[in-house]
């Protein structure tokens, strides 16, 4: 199956899955390790992909994806192009709160190869939150991991009364004010 | 697209700038020296500027700095400043050299005004500081040797000059050529005397793409030197640079197909121009240049390095290049 | 349909796991809960099968935002309706289940309260420490006030007894003391300078002499002691013009030393002149 869909499989008990899509594999790896180090009361599976679509032959092994985080490095224009191309392989209903854009390299304006406006627009068009961070700094990496984990819990339906959609709306309102 | 359009005649004011405040600070006026005969340049500068007077600025490497506004600076006191700076340098050179043997170099300091280098009426005249040496051993041979020069300028820096309180002079861009130790000495004197701050001005890869596009669009005479872009590949054990040279006429032809309205450049056009170059390169070498870092752009107009080094090559476009650099300096200060 | 699913799932995932693991004695309670889970799971499977029929939908290239916003409106309306329709679910009346749930709830409350307790305790401790410190400070202040009062009392008495002659005598004594002290200080300084800052060693100066001998006669160097004296005198006698021109008889390292440690200052316009830092001002 070429397109990733949010409800294509039944969920597994007490577990959640996040998919990290980005062209910088070492940063992805670091973030994944930071997420795994966090304390949590559910099983988590982290799937890494440099780009979408995911290979269909391993589709039956993959659990249901609850959250997709697209990683963009402001130092590499390629990372943005890569994410833009991957977005075409995501089912539209994923954008109802289960997608976020993770922008790393923030604060290194002198190395900037990407127009920040383009990234901001991406979040705007796809109605998804844009998280700015610097994954190369340990402290910020840990904080980002915690943030993603919290979002993942909501997206996987582990928090009664809060759906991914309403949470996304909440984030938007606070960001626009 | 609608929000990033940069219109030339309106002194770079930009409608809908509000959303650009989310990006880094280069949302304002870019590239008012467009293609063609350099027409979009502010009228006052180009015609009055005597290419002879600024010729010495060409073909030299200048290190870029941003400078916060100078407090209580007066252009009428340049002679006095020269004397004070000369004494300060002499004192600095005595420091730690008490048991000095050898030739005592006599350093001559001159301050002069470069009134031609401005963009708008509000700009303060540029100021040149030169250090030259005269050997004190043989005073007869009084031929002075230029050791170091640096100049302050502000070209269309209205954004800043309109917003500073009285008693402050805006000369946000400083360019230095010569030993770095003199930048430190001269800088610390200015810092002490005018309560200002110097900072190296790096050029981000994104701004380099703007320069590449804008300079490509400028008309130059035939058999001009090639347009060259240098990329550095990140995350490798050994540094690897890729040089991408393009015939200037080919580059200009490409740019002309990309640019929609002459005299106006948008981010989309710059992106598209670079993407075309990248995909051409990818077709031949299977390398994604977009994943690398653009470190240097050199054209017949000027060459710029991301570490903040510039070389002007054409006096005709000097003001235009300075305008862009002034803007970068201002955005670094703010 | 699709919007309903996440909520049901969250219900499903929230069955307290503890109960599922209860002992054999509560077999029927467990049975009942498992049945409930089964029924929720079946509902989910139903929803799931409907969802799979929906097929995929990717966003169009143009106007992605518009179609996404339309979808969001639809989804949010559905979610809203769902919440409106939803009535509180009645939990099982089975006493075992209720006991287990109650226990869990109480445990949660207990944990929370324990946390509050420890926070309050540490806060109290901090407050006690603060109080102690404040009290101590207060005591000290009180002592200072007492001492000051005593001094005031003494002064009052002295003022009364003051006679002109005695005051004169006292001042004279003080002057004498100061003079001797100044003398002592000057001697100590002189000794110190002689011991630690002698003139450059013979060999050093000899070398210099030799080098310079061809061009100019060697200059007699003066000691640091003398330099300092000249500087002090200059500052004291002509405060409007305290600068001294550095001559060849000053050994450069000593000048450098004075400048480096802020004892002397260079003239702002003439590097060859120095003055003493105005320590007396």
What does this entry look like structurally?
The complex is a heterotrimer of chains A (177), B (334) and C (281). Chain A contains five helices and five strands, in the order βαββαβαβαα. Chain A has 177 residues and is of the alpha/beta class. The model of chain A has no long low-confidence stretch (mean pLDDT 89). Chain B has 334 residues and is an alpha+beta fold. In chain B, helix 6 packs across helix 8. Chain B starts with 5 loop residues before the first strand and ends with a helix. Chain C contains nine helices and three strands, in the order ααααααααβαββ. In chain C, strands 1-3-2 form a three-stranded antiparallel β-sheet. In chain C, strand 2 and strand 3 form a beta hairpin. In chain C, helix 1 runs antiparallel to helix 3. The longest helix of chain C is centred in the middle third of the chain and has 67 residues. At the A-C interface, helix 5 of A face helix 1, helix 3 and helix 4 of C.
Outline:
Chain A contains five helices and five strands; from the N terminus they run E-H-E-E-H-E-H-E-H-H.
List the SSEs and their pairings:
The complex is a heterotrimer of chains A (177), B (334) and C (281).
Chain A: E1 15-21, H1 25-37, E2 43-49, E3 67-73, H2 77-86, E4 99-104, H3 116-125, E5 130-132, H4 138-155, H5 164-176
Parallel strand pairs in A: 1-2, 1-3, 3-4, 4-5
Chain B: E1 6-7, H1 43-48, H2 51-54, E2 61-67, E3 70-71, H3 78-94, E4 105-114, E5 126-135, E6 145-153, H4 158-161, E7 168-169, E8 173-177, H5 180-194, E9 198-200, H6 205-216, E10 227-233, E11 240-246, H7 248-258, E12 264-265, H8 267-285, E13 293-298, E14 302-305, E15 309-312, H9 318-333
Antiparallel strand pairs in B: 1-12, 2-8, 2-9, 2-15, 3-7, 4-5, 5-6, 6-8, 10-11, 10-13, 13-14, 14-15
Helix pairs in contact in B: 6-8
Chain C: H1 4-13, H2 17-20, H3 27-54, H4 64-85, H5 95-161, H6 164-196, H7 202-213, H8 224-237, E1 244-245, H9 252-260, E2 264-266, E3 273-276
Antiparallel strand pairs in C: 1-3, 2-3
Helix pairs in contact in C: 1-3
Protein name (chain B): Centromere protein L
Pfam family, one (chain B): CENP-L
Main location (chain B): nucleus
